Amino acid sequence: MIARDRAGIYSEGARRGAPDATQVADRFHLLQNLGEALRLAVGRHRKAVGAAGKAMIAETIGNDKARRELSAEPATKLDALRRSRRGHRRSLYAEILDLRATGLSPHGIGRGSA
After folding, report:
1. What's the burial of 21, exposed, middle or buried (CB within 10 Å: 0-12/13-18/19+)?
2. Which of 4, 55, 58, 93 is 20 to 30 A from 48, comparing alpha carbons?
3. Residues lower than pLDDT 70 in the chain
């Protein structure tokens, strides 16, 4: 049995050097790939994970005042920047939809914004 990373060159070398051996991914790379997959999955659902965390805290505290305080957290500069950028993207998207509704092609819309 040969434990190796997933690079093709190692696979080829293992196949040539020990053609009857079973090749398996090594523990380090399995954990590295698992960690990356977990980061991507959580990243795609960041809002839901955050909301679930807040709901769990509110449930643990168990009173309405705490729930209101959690939902009315003061905005950080980063939150404000994110809201501003999200609003800008939404206005650009609305403008694109309006231009598309007038019959302008995607290429024409892109060229007009350059």
Report:
1. exposed
2. 93
3. 62-75, 113-114
